[in-house]
Specification:
single chain, 12 strands, about 1900 residues, mainly alpha, ten-stranded mixed β-sheet
Amino acid sequence: MWSTSGAKIDGLPQSLSRKMTRIRRGAPVDDPEEEGIDSEKLVPRSLAEIVPILRVAIEIKHRYPRVAYLCLFHAFEKAHKMDPMSTGRGVRQFKTYLMHRLEKEEKDTKPSLAGNDPGEIQKFYQMFYEQRVRDGQYEEKTEVMAKNYRIASVLYDVVRAVVPYEKVDAQINKCARVVEIKKEQYVHYNIIPLFATASKPAIKELPEIEAAINALRKVDHLPKPRAQSTPNELDDRDIVIHDLLDWLWLAFGFQKGNVANQREHLILLLANADIKNKQQEDYCQDRQLDNDTVKNLKDKILENYFSWCNYLHCEQNVKITCNAAERQPLQLLYIGLYLLIWGEASNIRFMPECICYIFHHMAKELDGILHGGTFLPAHQGKEAFLREVVTPIYQVLRKEAERNQGGTVSHSKWRNYDDLNEYFWSDKCLKLGWPMNREADFFLHSDEIQPRNVVFIHQPNNVTAGKRKPKTNFVEVRTFWHLYRSFYRLWVFLILVFQAMVIVAWSAGGSLSSLFDEDVFRNIMSIFITYSLLNFLKAMLDIILSCRTWGSLKQTQIIWYLLKFAVASLWVVVLPIGYSSSVQNPTGLIRFFSDWTNNWQIQSFYNFSVVIFMTPNIFSAILFILPPLRRSMENSNLSVIVLMMWWTQPKLYVGRSLHEDFSSLLKYTLFWILLLISKLAFSYYVEILPLIGPTKLIIGLKTVRYNIGGVISIWAPIVLVYFMDAQIWYAIFSTIFGGIHGVFNHMGEIRTLRMLRSAFEAVPVAFSKCLVPLPIEDVRRIHLDGSFEKRNIAKFAHMWNEFINCMRMEDLLSNRERDLLLVPYSSSDVSVVQWPIFLLASNSISVVMDMVRDFKWISDKRDNDIFNKVKSDDYMKSAVIECYETLRDILYGILGDDEDKMLVRHICYEVDSSIQDQRFLQEFRMSELPEFCDELKIFLNYLEADPEDAESNKTQIMVALTVVMDFITKDVMVNGHKIMERAYARTEDNDKQEQRFGKINLDLMQNKSWMEKVVRIHLLLTVRESAIDVPMNLEARRRITFFTNSLFMKMPDAPKVRNMLSFSVLTPYYKEDVHYSEEELEKENEDGISILFYLRNIYPDEWSNFQERLMDPKTCDAAKDKMDLTRQWVSYRGQTLSRTVRGMMYYRQALELQCFLDMAGDHKIFGGYRAVDVNNREERALAPNSQAVVDMKFTYVVSCQIYGQLKISSEPRDRSCYQNILNLMLQYPSLRVAYIDEREETVNGKPEKVYYSVLIKGGDNLDEEIYRIKLPGLPTVIGEGKPENQNHAIIFTRGEALQTMDMNQDNYLEEAFKMRNVLQEFLRCRPGQQKPSILGLREHISTGSVSSLAWFMSNQETSFVTIGQRTLANPLRVRFHYGHPDIFDRIFHLTRGGISKASKTINLSEYIFSGFNSTLRGGNVTHHEYIQAGRWLAVGMNQISLFEAQVANGNGEQTLSRDVYRLGHHFDFYRMLSFYFTTVGFYFSSMVTVIIVYVFLYGRLYLVLSGLERSILLDPSVQPIKSLEMALATQSVYQLGLLLVLPMVTEIALEGGFLTALGEFIIMQLQLASVFFTFQLGTKAHYYGRTILHGGAKYRATDRGFVVFHAKFADNYRLYSRSHFVKGMELLMLLIVYEVYGKSYSLSIYWFITSSMWFLVASWLFAPFVFNPSGFEWQKTVDDWTDWKRWMGNHGGICIPQDRSWESWWESELEHLKRTDIRGQVLEIILACRFFVYQYGIVYRLNIAHQNQSLQVYGLSWLVMAMVLLFLKMVSMGRRKFGTNFQLMFRILKFVLFLCFLPVMTVLFVACGLTTGDLFAVVLCFMPTGWALLLIGQACRSMMKGIGFWDIIKELARGYEYVMGMIIFMPIVILSWFRFVSKLQTNLLFNQTFGSLHKAIRERRDRRERVVQGPVSCGGQ
C-alpha cells in the first residue's frame, strides 16, 4: 500500500517495538492498543509541523478510520523526511511508535468510500470540500470555517502523499487552489480577523477600526523596496503588499509573526486613540483617521527617541514631509517601524536606548528608501533583523549573564542590563556604525574572569565566559557606604545638627539662648569643618566606588570626580586653618551679623571661606524654591546651563525633571519641617542634654581609670538612637497626615450595614454621578422631566443586581440574601421606587400589620393617624404602595376571565377612593389583614413552585386564589358583597358564579419578569426585622460597604465604554496550582486534614451557600457534575490561576454590561437585560457591537512560559496544569496564553534548539496558535525569572494601559465597574505636574481570617497599601510601584524599558525598580483608593518569614543599586528624606534597632567586666544616668512593633471606627502581636545586613497552598538558626553575664529596657514554636525530637539534601562566605573578635585567679582553650580512624582521655582553689571564645582545610548546634507536658473556626487511634 504514494521511504528501522512505554508514560488509557495519538504530548519538538496532521486524524478517526490511517501514514512520511537519521530527541521512539500503529491499523481498517486508498482519500476530500467548505461558508461561523479550511488543506497534502500527482482528480486540484486562496481569510486571529471576507465580523464594522485599517493600507504612493531575495524566496515582484507593515517587512526583514502581531497592535492603538474624543456619528463615509490622532501617537511612542537624540546632540532621523497627503502614512511608517523593532527585540526591550539606537539607523534607512531611489537597507531577507541585529546584542547579554554565575559573582565583575543600556547614553555608541561593527568595543572585552565551580546547562547559543568590559556609570559594590553616598545630604544634616546640639548642650546651662553667646557661636561654626570632612569622605567614596567604571566614562565625568576630590581636599585644609586663626568677636551674634553687613572687608578669613564653601548649597536652595527654573535648567541642553549644572552633578540621561510643582513642594516641605522640629527637640531634651552632666562628672573623676571608655559606652547607643528615631517620627507623622487625608477623601463614611441602610437612598444618585456617562442630550433634559432619573435608577439596578448575583455565584450569599439585596428594575408598573427588601425589613408589611391591627373604631382622626404614620417613613410608604400595586398587577395577570378582572378593578377602585375620601377604616376591617396575609402567602407559595409543575398545581392555585379573593370581599371589606354584585351583574348563571376564578393564565409562570414580582411581594410579606442584618457573610458585607462608600469618593467621571482608554491585564505564571484535582481535594496530611475538610471548616457559611446552589437548578450548571463544581469552589478559595483568571475576566463582564447600558435605548434598559444568572450567556441580549467594543478595549494575557513543557510532560501534575489551563481558555474565549516554545531544528545536519514566543487561544477543545515569533535564544536565562516572563509576553498585550496582576491576586466585579473611571486618571491635567505614568491602587488582603499570624500580616499590609501609600503619594510624592495591582501607562513604559527591571540579583525586587525607572524618566506615580483588588498573603510563620526575607534581600540589593543612588542625589532634600525613610531607610533602621541592643549590652559588659561601673556608682557625686534609659525606650518602641501597629490602628479607626480599632489593638496584643513583630524585626535585620555584606539575595518560594500542617522542629531550626537563634543566644549570654557581674539601677525605666531585651531574646528563640500549629502537642514534640536527632547525626555528601543531613545544611549556610570577597571575610573576622571580650573579662574574676591581674592568667586561659581544641581534634581523628573498624580502640581512647580529665579536675579543686561557681563562669567564659574561633575558622575556610583543621571546625560547629538545639528544645518539652498549653495556644493564636478545626482534628485522630488499638487490645486479651 505504501508504494501508492509514489515515494519510497529509505532508512526505515527494521525492528519495531510493540509497546512504547517510554513515550506513553503519563497518559493512562483503558486499552493501550486502542489509544489515540496524543498530538500535544507524543510529538517531539523537532517534528511540531506534523501536529496539524495528527489533529485531523483524531478528528475523523471514528467515522472514517481508513482516512485517519492515511493521515497517520502521511505524518510518518513527513516526519521521516524531516529527520531521516532520527537524530532529534525522541524522534526515533516516535517514528517507531507511529509505525507500530500504522501496521496495526492497516489490518484493522478498510476503505469505505472506494475500493482502494487513492480513491478513498479523493472521495473523502471531495465530500468534505462540498459539505464543509463550499456549503459551510454560508452557514457556519468564522471559527468553524477556519477549522474546515485547515482540515481541507491537510487533507490535500495527504492526497498528494497517497496519490501520484498525475492521477489526482482535476476537480480536486481546482478545489485545493480555492482552499489555498481563501485559507488566508480564515487564519487564527487574536482580536481582529483582518482577512475574513465571507462574513464581516462586528469589530471590523466599527468605524474607528475601519479608519485605522484604511490608514494602514495607503501604500500606493510608496516605492516598492528592492528586496535581496534568495533562491528559496519569492522575488520581490511577486510579493503582495497589503499595508504599511507589509512594506516594512519587505524592506527590513522582520518576521511575519511579528508583523501580524504589531499590525493588530497598531490598528487597535489608532482606533482607540481616534474614538477617544469622538462619537460614532463623527466619522465620514470614507472612514479616515484624524491627523492629530496619528501625530499624537507618533509623538508619544517616539518621545523617548527624540529625547535621546537631543541628549546626544545628534540629528533625529524622523523626516516628516510637509505634504498633507503624505504626512499621515509617513508618520505611520515610523510608528510601525518602532513597534516592529520593539516587538522582535526580545531581551533588548529592557534596553530602551539601545532600541532608540537601532531605530535611529533604521529610520535613516527608511528615509533613504523613500527618497533615495535604489537605496538598499543593511539587512534584508527572511529573519534578517533577528539574525543581524537582535542576536548579536543578545549574545553580549548572554555572555554577561554567564559571568553572573547564578548570582554568586560580585556585581562589579559583570555588566547587567543597565550597564549595557547606558552604553547608548554616550555618543560613542554612534561609532558602532550600521550595520553594527562586530569589532567595536561594545562586542569586545578586555580582561579575563575565572569562572567559579558553577555548572551551567548547555544551551544552543552557549558562549564562553571570555573577557569583560568595565561597568558603565555605576558599580554596585557590596558595602554599607552606599547608604552614605546615596543619601549624603541626610547624614551631613544629622551629623552637623548633632554636633551643634552637643556644643549648645555642653555650654553653661545648655539653654538654646546660649546660641547668642560669642564663644558658643564660634564653636558652632566648627560644623563647617566637619562638613568639609564629610564632603571629603563623599568625594573619596565617589572615586573608590566608581573606579571600575572609569574605562567607560567620558573624560568630563572623570574630570568631575578628580576636581570634586581636589576641591574637597582643599577645603579640608583651608577651613581648619581659617578656623584656628579666626579672631574672636566680643560683641556676640547680633553685632556679628551687623558687622558682616556693614564692614564685610574686615571679616575673618574663616568667614569668607565658609561663604565661598557654602555657595553651591546657597545656589541649590534658590533653585529649590523655584522648581520651574530648576526643571528647565536640568532639561536644557544649552552648553552654558549644562556647565552651570555640571558641578552639582554630571548630567545623565535619566534623573532630570524630578522636581515637583510649588504646591506639592510646599506640602512635603511643611511635613518634614514639622517632623524635624519634633525629632530634634526630642533628641536634644531627652537624649543629649541629660547626658551632658553625667559625662562631665565621669570625665572629671580622679578615681576612675580609662573613663573615656565609659563615656563611649554611654554615648554609643544614644548616638545610634539619634540616627534611628527619625524613622519613628516618620511613622507618627505619616499616620497623622494619612489619617487626615483619608478623612477628607471620605474613607470609612459607610462601614457598617446600619450606615449603609441610612445612606442607601443617596447611593443611586452617587452611582449616577460616578459611573454613568452623561450624554449632552441628557444634560439638557435633567430638569425637564423625570425620565433621566428613572433611567439612571434602572442603570443602577442593572449594575447593583449584577454585583449581587456575582456574590451569589461566589457563594458569599444565600438565595434568600440575594433576593433581599436585589433592586427591581424600574418599570411603569409601580409608582414608587422599589428599594431592596433588606432596607424595608425594619419597616416591612408585618410591621404595618402590627400597627393597624388594633384600629377597630371608625374615626376620621384615626384614619389620618395611620396614614400619617405610614407616610412618615419613606421606606414604609414605598413598601405598602409597592405591595398593593404589585398584588394588583399579579392578579390582573393571572386572571383569565374578564369578569374576574372586573372584580379586581372594583376592589382597587374602592381602596383608592376610600383612601382619598379618608374613610378607609370605615370600609375595611384592619383586624383581618394579618389573616389575609397568611392566605396570600399560601397563594404565592404555589406560584413560586417550579414552572414545570404548574399544570399539576393548577387546582391548588385556583383554590388558593379563590380563598384570597373571598377573604378580601367577605372578611376584609365591609361592603364586599356589593362589589361582587357589581362585578358579576351580567352573570345570571349560578353555576358560573360558583366557578369563579377557574380560568387562570399559568403561562406567566414562564415569564421571568412576572415571577420576580411574585418572589418580591412574597418577601415583602414574609420578611422580618432580622433581614436588616443581611448579608451575614463578613466578606460580602465588606465588599458592599466599600463599594457604596467609594461612590461618594472623588473620582473622574466615567466615559462611555467606546470612549474609554483601552487596557490589558498581564498575569505571570510559572508552575503554581491552576485548579485543584479531586485527588488533591481528598488527600490528607499527617493530621488527617484534607483541603476540602479544611475549607469547609474555615468557610462554613460559604460551604452552606454552595450546597444550596448545587440544589438550585436556576443557579447550578447542569453541564457540570457535583465534583467539578466542588473542585471549582475549592480552587476559588486558594491561590490558584483559575481564581485569578475569574477575577480578571470580571473586567470583561463589567464592560459588557456597561457597553450595553451605553448603547441600549430606554426600552431595553428598563426591561432588556435582567441578569439573574451571570453565567448563562443565553440570557444576555447584547448586540454584537457591544462585544466588539469590549474586544477593542480589554485584553487579558497569562504569561505561562513553560506551557509548552507542561504540554509534553509525562508528570501527572504537569499534565493536569496543562489541561486546566486549556480548560480556562475554553471557558473564557477572550483569554490568551503566551508561552516560550522550544523546538529542535536541524542546522548543518545537527539538531539545535530554537525558541519562540507564542500566543495561543482556546478553540475546538484544543489550543490554537495565533502568533509565533522567533527569539534569539532562551530569554529567561538572562535576568530574573518573573520580569523575563512578563517581558516575553508584553508584546501580545494591547491598549494604552496595562495592569499587572500576580498569581495571588483577585478582582471583584463591583470594582471592575470603576475601571473606566480610574483609567481617566491618565488624562487628568494637574497644574505643574506630569500626567501619571503609574496609577497605584489599594488592595484588600483576604487571608486575615485564618489565624492570628494571617491577621497580623493582613493588617500590616492593609495599612501599607492604604494609609502608607496614601501618604507616599500625597503629600510626599515618593510613591513607587510596590507590586500589584498598579496600572501602567503602557506606551510610556514600553518605550522606556518595560514594566520592570530584570538584571539578575540586583533587581530581585523587580516591581519597585519599575517605579524607580518611571520616576527617573519623568513619570509620576499616583495613588487611588476608590478602587481595590484582592490579594492573598502567606498565612504560616515560615511562609511569612520567607516572604520577609525576600523583601529584606531585595532592599539590600536596592541599597547597592544605581537607581537609589540617582534618586537620592536628584531629589530635593525633603523629597530625598521621604524616599530614604520609606524604602531602604526602613530596613536600615530595623538593623540599627538590633545593633542598639548589641551596643548597649556590650557597653554594659565592658563597664561591668572592667570595673568601671562599680567605680562610677560608688562615687557619691554621680547619679544614675536616667537619660540613657529614657532614650533607649524609643528603641523598645521600635522593637516591639509599635511602629507598625500605629498606622494599622489608625487605618482601622478610619475605616472601622475608633472602638473597633481599640478592640483590635487589645486583641492583637493578647494574641502576641508584639512577639511576632519582634521576631520579624530580626528577619529584616539579618537578611538586609547579610545581603549588603555578602550577597545571597534570591527568590524564596513560599507555599501558595493552605497551611494546615505542623512544621517540624528541624525545619524551624534550619530556617531560623542563623537569623534568630544564634543572635538570640548571644543576647541571652550578654544578659546573663551582665546580671551575674553587674550592679544595676533600681529604676522602673531601666527594668522596662532590660525586660524589652529579655522579651526580644524570648521572641527570637521561641516565636516559631509558639506560632506553630500543634506546637505543644506531646506526640508531635516526641516526633520532632526524633527527627532532629536523626538529622543532626546524618553525614552529608554530594546530592544529599539539606533536610536530610545537618552537614549538608551547614555547608549551604556557609555559601555566603564562599562567594564573598576579602573585604567581607575580614569584616567577619573583626566582628567575631567581639566574643573574646567574655574570656578577657571573666577569667580575671574567677576564684582560681585569686585576683591576679597579670597577663599570665589570660595566657593560661588560652592554654586551657587549646587543650579543649586538642581534645576535640583527638576525638575527631579517633572517630575517623577507629570509629568504624576499630570501635574498641576508639572506646579505649575516650576512656583514657576521661581518666586524664579526672585527676586534672581534682588538682584544680584541691590545690588551686577552683570552685563550683568557677565552673559556671568557665562556661560563660569559653563558650563565646569557642564560637569566635568557629566563626573565624569558617571565614578562613581555605586555610583551615590546608592545615587540616576543618574537621575540628565541623565537629565544634556540630557541638554548638547540639547545645543550642537542646537549650531551645527543653522549654518546648516542658510546656508539652501540660495539655492545657496546647489548647491555650490553639484558642489564643487562631480564630474560633480554626480552633474548632483543631478540635475536630484531635477527635478524628483519637477515633483512629481507638480503631487501631481496639483489635490489638482484643488480641492481647
